[in-house]
Amino acid sequence: MRRERTRDLAALALLTLTVAAFFWPLLLTQAWIPRGGGDLVSFLWPMYRFAARSLRSGTVPLWNPHLYSGAPFVADNQSGVFYPINLIAFALFGAPSYQVMEGLVVFHIWLAAIGTFLLLRGLKLRRSAAVLGAMAFALSDLFVTHIGNLNLNATAAWLPLTLWATHRALGERSVYWAGAAGALLAVAALAGHAQMLLFLALTVALYGLYRLSILIADGGEHRWRRALQT
Fold first, then answer.
1. Which of 152, 139, 146 is CA-nearest to residue 110?
2. Among 6, 7, 20, 34, residue whose Cα is nearest residue 150
3. Cα gap 210→167, rounded to integer Å
4. 164-201: per-residue pLDDT in tens?
5. Rounded Cα distance, 97 and 88, in Å
6. How many angstroms separate the CA atoms of 77 and 100, rounded?
7. Contact 51, 104 (CB under 8 A)
8. DSSP letters of 192-217?
9. Strand ranges, E, within 50-154
10. How many CA atoms lie within 13 A of 208 on its CB side?
11. Phi, psi (5° rounding) for residue 60?
């Protein structure tokens, strides 16, 4: 067991190095992402700085007086005011610099890789397959094409962990893991991208229906009804 855990930790370290290697121009040179700025610099950076300054001054930013003639802020799904990762960044760095924003991009791609590895290992795939699957998901066009759309990537990054918790909840009939899956989905919701959150919820629902269909096929309708009652 100890040897297996050591190998899993080595695989996680390899995934971390892979993400770092992918972003080596950002980490080792004066490069910046995304090219041309995109939403990260023109939209999300000002929003996060306003949110951080407001929260650190003891004010919940219900309203943004600097946008248009004033506009709702917390009610804007993309503001990410209460997203836990943002709150940690605001607490550590205050109004985030652009380098902090880039760090959040890298962190969420790393999170997608780690989460996918844990999911695939939980599904009993070989370690090598889990590593390759994690690389394929984290460095897919979903994340790379939208690299400047931080809230989209942040929401998507929680999908593997949410599926992993859902898988364990269904497999073990565990209220604890069901609650964990719900909590992870809630965290993804706070990241602030409604369309991607819908995709996450549909994926979890479809996986639940898939597991239910297996239960019906293996044990018949009476087992299905008993499962729903437990």
1. 139
2. 34
3. 11
4. 999 999 888 899 999 999 999 999 999 999 999 999 99
5. 14
6. 21
7. no
8. S-HHHHHHHHHHHHHHHHHHHHHHHH
9. 63-64, 71-72
10. 15
11. -80, 120
pLDDT bracket for residue 222 (50, 70, 90)? low
| Amino acid found at 105 | V
DSSP-derived secondary structure letter, 75: T
Q: How far apart are CA 98 and CA 108, in angstroms?
A: 16
C-alpha 26: how far from chain center: 21
Percent of the chain that is helix, strand, coil (3-state, to 5)? 75, 5, 20
Per-residue pLDDT reduced to its tens digit, 27-51: 888 888 887 667 899 899 999 999 9
pTM: 0.90
Helix axes 98-122, 45-56, angle to 10 degrees: 100
Give the Cα separation of 38 and 26 in Å (integer): 16
64 φ/ψ angles, rounded to the nearest 5 degrees: -110, 105
